[in-house]
Amino acid sequence: MTVGFWLEEAQRALRAATSAVTGRRASDAGEINALVHARADVYHQMARITELLVGGRPVTEEANKATATLILGRRGQNLTRLYVGLRAAARKDEHLPPAPAITAGPARSLRRAADALGIIGDIIAGHVPFKRRPGTPEGRAIRAGGGVQGTLADVARLTIEAVRLDSRLPPWLNRGGPLAHTYRSAAEAAEWTSNSRLGLAAAQLVATAKFEPGLRDLDTARSPLHPAPTVDTVETAITAIRAARMWLWLHPAQVTGVHLQTGTQLGLAVHILTARGKPDMIGGWRQAAIAAADLQATPASGPAQNAAAEISEALRWARSMLVITAQEDARRQARNPERLVSEMRLMAATLHRGLRAAVRHCNLFVRADAILHRPAGSLVYRTVPRWRPATSNDDLVRDLSGALWQTVGQNDHGDGTLMIARLLATPPHPHPVSRTTAVTAPSRNSNQASDDPAGPDWRHTGNGHLSKQATQPSTRVARSEAVEDSEKLMSGGISID
């Protein structure tokens, strides 16, 4: 399940809890206790997601309600205000007994919301471990700012729902008698949150990130399986591609010829499938597939072979989609194959990285000069093909590297992290989430050295231009809201300026 699924689940659960407490009172102490603990967990999980997205705590000190009230009263600094408000709202009375298991009512709904937010945090943490370098392309993209502003806005929307719930809690908690005294701190906490400017700070953060893409399609990828599961829908194709891509990204030294060949053929099939009758005849996936077909390599084994099988199964399905008759074209479009485009762009980045590693480890071979050989008893000489390890200066390697780089849409400065961030920020669905504008960069000077160790030749980009997509610049967090951390920010940390 993706981040978007769990965001919707958390929103439904918060609204169900709000509806359940409206116009009624708590039944007993157990229900109150369970709801108070679940409420604190909801705010705590939203604060945790915020920390994961920005790579640390926006403020280091723990703010009490008095300090939080002062900070929430400021103008601007929406991220800091949101985070401080969430941390303050997450505080609960430590003397309360452990929460009992509740199977019905608002406490159960609120616990569902807390669990959904916890899963979202786990998914994001799988790509951007706290205070550690990200190990996935999605993690590098998040650290570069891809999808961060949009996801912070999603957290802010859930904060508004939680504040709305808090406004209904004091009457629900007011049962009178000893219980009113026992849970007075819980009622006061809910009153503070509903009367504070936390909801306003959240609403302002939503407004500033109105057109920003988020991470709703982010998920944790499974490992490649043996045998490879059957691919028969766009969803299963995305799952197979993502599993292979993630494993290859984590193990670039295991990339070999079969991954390059099947991966580029899959990219070409997806390109033709989504080009609506106007595929590119030169450059891009087509050039990459032609170049990869002429390479030889050491065979894959173990998990690398499983990854190749996942790609091959997705390729079989994509080719089957290409032979659909014209009468079934409408049904094919309804299956939304455009969702594969973003996955294949990330696959191009993964294959490019693996190509460099394969050349370094001498896992790829190209044809050497043929030799003449005369078999015994024959008067005819025959040419015997020879193979040698490929180098970064070979035409096939340069053609393949340049074609993959063109497909990825690398920026002018050769910064792979920003490139992956742009890919992640590109909505995978046909309906636009962000305003994007296609631009074309002028062709590079052919004498200019490339930043790529594999040596992509900019002359092999088809029409001499490098096509890329530039999304609308993300709404930046103010410099005063920079992450405060006693430790030096690692190289993968997000720069908030």
User: Termini distance?
Assistant: 33 Å
The helix/strand series, from N terminus to C terminus, equals HHHHHHHHHHHHHEHHHEEHHEE
Mean pLDDT: 77
Class based on secondary structure composition and strand pairing:
mainly alpha
Give the fraction of residues assigned to helices.
40-55%
Catalogue the unreliable spans.
Answer: 410-416, 425-497
Computed Rg:
27 Å
Q: Given the C-alpha coordinates, what overall shape results?
A: elongated
What share of residues are in beta strands? 5-15%
Number of strands: 5
Strand order of the largest sheet: 1-2-3
Major sheet details = 3 strands, antiparallel
Number of helices: 18
Short description:
Helices cover 54% and strands 6% of the residues. By secondary structure, it is mostly helical. It is elongated and about 110 Å long.
Structure description:
By secondary structure, the protein is mostly helical. The radius of gyration is 27 Å and the shape is elongated. The strands form two sheets. A three-stranded antiparallel β-sheet has the order 1-2-3, with no helix packed on it. Strands 4-5 form a two-stranded antiparallel ribbon. The model is unreliable at 410-416 and 425-497 (pLDDT under 50). The chain has helices spanning 3-21, 29-54, 65-72, 78-89, 105-127, 137-143, 148-173, 177-182, 184-195, 198-208, 234-250, 257-274, 284-293, 303-322, 329-334, 340-360, 395-408, 416-425; strands at residues 296-297, 364-373, 382-389, 436-441, 466-471. Helix 1 runs antiparallel to helix 5 (105-127), helix 2 runs antiparallel to helix 7 (148-173) and helix 7 (148-173) packs antiparallel against helix 10 (198-208).
